[in-house]
């Protein structure tokens, strides 16, 4: 039973050279390197989405409706900290 699939990607020459050098330094395959990079990208994207949702929820809780209000509150916070 095959647990992995083969895909073909196209990279600019300079990026391929860097990937090959990194794979060699870490004694791993390009495939391993690309798999890890994609996993990290997906994880970071999910973490960013979660952060945005928490931030937006807090903004709604505080009644923040636009960026101008954020700047106002930020300035107020800085003044109070001094």
Please provide a written account of the structure.
The chain has helices spanning 13-25, 30-62, 67-81. It contains three helices and no strands. The protein is mostly helical. It is 74% helix and 0% strand. The protein has one domain (13-81).
Short descriptors:
82 residues; mainly alpha; 0% strand
Helix content: over 70%
Query: Span between N and C termini?
Result: 65 Å
- Give the number of DSSP strands: 0
The number of domains: 1
Strand content: under 5%
The number of helical segments is: 3
Rg measurement, Å = 22 Å
Largest sheet: none
What is the N-to-C succession of helices and strands?
Answer: HHH
The overall pLDDT, averaged over residues, is: 89
List unreliable stretches of 5+ residues. none
Shape: elongated
Helix/strand class: mainly alpha
Layout: helices, strands, pairs:
Layout: H1 13-25, H2 30-62, H3 67-81
Quick structural gist:
The protein has 82 residues and is an all-alpha fold.
């Amino acid at each position: 039973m095959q647990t992995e699939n083969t895909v073909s990607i196209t990279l600019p020459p300079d990026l391929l050279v860097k990937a090959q050098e990194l794979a060699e330094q870490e004694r791993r395959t390009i495939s391993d390197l690309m798999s890890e990079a994609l996993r990290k990208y997906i994880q970071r994207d999910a973490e960013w989405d979660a952060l945005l949702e928490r931030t937006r929820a807090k903004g709604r809780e505080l009644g923040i409706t636009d960026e101008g209000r954020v700047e106002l509150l930020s300035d107020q916070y800085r003044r109070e900290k001094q």
